Amino acid sequence: MPKVGEQKSDIEDACSFSSDRSLVAIADGTSTSFLAGEWAKLLVAHFCLPNESSIADIHELWEKWLSPVQKKWRQHYL
User: Fold this and answer.
1) pTM (2 decimals)?
2) Whole-angstrom distance, CA of residue 33 vs CA of residue 49
């Protein structure tokens, strides 16, 4: 739902699920940040990609997990 006084197109949040529907990701886009909605979409999509890592592995090695998302962000948006 959009905030009071805003349009549906102003929503910066994102959600996704894996192709086998075993993972769901929700990201609350920080509406005052630069392209917050795009960053939220990249995060949830990356989280739901098929991979060999468990949720525990992602938690432990989050910097390694986040690196490809940051690279994609830099290529497309900066």
Assistant:
1) 0.80
2) 25
